[in-house]
Amino acid sequence: MLPNDDNAPLLEAVDTSATVLRFGEGEPVRITRAIPTEVPVNLVYGGIPFAVMMTTPSDLEDFAVGFSLTEGVIEALRDIRGIRIEPEERGLRLAIELTPDKLHEHLARKRAMSGRTGCGLCGIDDLNALPQARSPHGSPPRVSLSAIRRALTALDAEQVLNERTHAVHGAAWASLDGSLLVVREDVGRHNALDKLIGALCRAGTRPESGFVIVTSRCSFELVEKVAVFGARTLVAISAPTSLALERARLLDITLVAIARRDSVTVFHGLEHIEMEDAFA
User: Fold this and answer.
1) What's the whole-number average pLDDT of the chain?
2) Model pTM greater than 0.70?
3) Where in the chain are the domains?
4) Which of 7, 133, 183, 211 is 20 to 30 A off residue 194, Cα-Cα?
5) Does the pLDDT value for residue 174 go beyond 80?
6) 39-129: in CATH 3.10.20.10
7) Are the CB atoms for 182 and 194 separated by under 8 Å?
């Protein structure tokens, strides 16, 4: 929902009226419920539109950096010279200014990719165009079960927007001792992770200094995005898809999924998990 005033800030959530109907008995109950804001965001490089994403309008500078990195538009934060957020009639324009060399390189290989909100592959017309991160160097860091448990336990309280709406995805960065350092939320699972990665890049966070947690379905695109950033450990609330596991094995990313407060399932990288008595 866009505000009528172009100068009014876009909110992460809006209140709306609704009616609760109970099965079997009871009268209808009128309530006020917060729902997440979803806005078309047009990512534009050098004045040329590149992609339209349905996005929660928060942390958009982080989103611009993370999306640009994980989609291969840039290789590092230094490739971006500026970011402007501009209102449009039906959404927002995220104008990203690249360095001259990077803009020339981007325009030389630009492809259409409109509306990437679900599978993450809309606009790709050739299987060779599937995103692939570079193979990593060295071994993933060792992460203890107690650190994973600590981060999972703290995550709910840090998902402020989801607490209000129960309708957004979260992506978080935890230090190797399990302290939650950064959390980003969005209606799109890819967007939440891009926002997180963008925030980490802007802060100069070292990829080997922690691990990523995602609350959404663990598909291969999320594994790829984590790998592009350079992190080597991914903890997911749900199970991975077959291709996600295949990519995690190929990229040697420690993949911990079906993560609950009382147990986790390690699909790859068991040797990098310290199995002390974390659940005592």
Assistant:
1) 89
2) yes
3) 39-129, 143-274
4) 7
5) yes
6) yes
7) no
